[in-house]
Amino acid sequence: MTRFIICFIFVICVVIGFITFISISISISISISISISISISMFVLFLLSNIYKCRRISFRFNFAEMT
């Protein structure tokens, strides 16, 4: 009977540890994906702003050449 109780407690501890491990890994992967998406969007915004600046500068040069 004591061996059964010890095995039952051990199984419960293993299940609880497995569930906590899964939840921790899921939360870590979610936070990593969120940070990656934020950095990608910042990079895209940076590229777009640079392209916009380059277009504005080239438009100014073209306008200066035309006049």
In short:
With 67 residues, the protein is mainly α. It has one helix at 2-66. The longest helix is centred in the middle third of the chain and has 65 residues, at 2-66.
Top keywords for this entry?
67 residues, mainly alpha, 97% helix, rod-shaped
Strand content: under 5%
From the N-terminal CA to the C-terminal CA, the straight-line distance is 99 Å
| Rg, alpha carbons | 29 Å
Q: Please identify the structural class as seen in this structure.
A: mainly alpha
Described by the principal axes of the CA atoms, the overall outline is rod-shaped
Please give the count of helices. 1
Largest beta sheet, briefly? none
Number of DSSP strands? 0
Residue ranges: pLDDT <50 for 5 or more in a row?
A: none
Helix share bin = over 70%
Give the SSE order as H and E letters. H
State mean pLDDT (0 to 100 scale). 82
Protein architecture, described:
With 67 residues, this protein is an all-alpha fold. The protein has one helix at residues 2-66. The longest helix has 65 residues, at 2-66. The protein is rod-shaped.
Write the layout of secondary structure elements.
Blueprint: H1 2-66
